[in-house]
Amino acid sequence: MCTKATFMKIKFLFPYKCKKIGWLISVPTFIFMLVQMNTDFTFGFLNYQASSTTKISGDHEFLFNLQSHNFTADLTGLLLIGSLLLLAFSKEKYEDERILKIRLESLVWAVYVNSVLLMLAIIFFYDMLFLNVMVYNICTTLILFIARFNLVMFFDRRNAKMENL
After folding, report:
1. In the chain, where are the structural domains located?
2. Element of type H or E holding 69
3. What is the pTM of this model?
4. Residue 34's pLDDT is what?
């Protein structure tokens, strides 16, 4: 019989090797994102320029610009979110019910903390600063989850080693 916990392990987690891929992509991408957001750096080869000279009627540069765009920020965001998902939701080497419980508690904690941070941002930040905070907030829940999960796992493993001595 398949329990709910076993079903979640089998159905929704990436293989263990994806964790290494997540680390390899997320760390440099996160650093690049911080540099890019603070310096407006873009890669020229990611520029898109429409070949037609007529303006598209729905193109008001509010939601998107169909005439020209640089996809550096888009690619960085996609890489960062994808790699953080791999990092956060890859199986541990030895996945069991205890790790599943720590994973769930860490996820709930990350959502709570992120919600409080979001409420504080709504109260204290305005205009463009608020939009900048929201850009950083895109990955905050995943980063908080990864940090807490790994910290709890570290202390859990350390306590297990102390008990075995």
Report:
1. 14-49+64-91, 94-165
2. strand 68-70
3. 0.79
4. 85
Contacts 24+ apart (CB under 8 A), 69-72: 70/42, 70/43, 70/46, 71/46, 71/47, 72/36, 72/41, 72/42, 72/43, 72/46
- Cα 5 from chain centroid? 24
The whole-number pLDDT of residue 55 equals: 54
Residue type, 88: A
pLDDT digits (tens, 9 = 90+) for 12-58: 899 999 999 999 999 999 999 888 888 888 888 888 776 665 555 55
Neighbour-count burial for 140-163, b at 16+ CB within 10 Å, e otherwise:
bbbbbbbebbeebbeeeeeeeeee
Give the Å distances, CA to CA, from 72 to 33, 36, 65, 106.
9, 9, 14, 32
Taking residue 113's Cβ as centre, other Cβ atoms within 10 Å add up to 16
**Which among 84, 79, 107, 104 is positioned nearest to 14, based on CA atoms?**
84
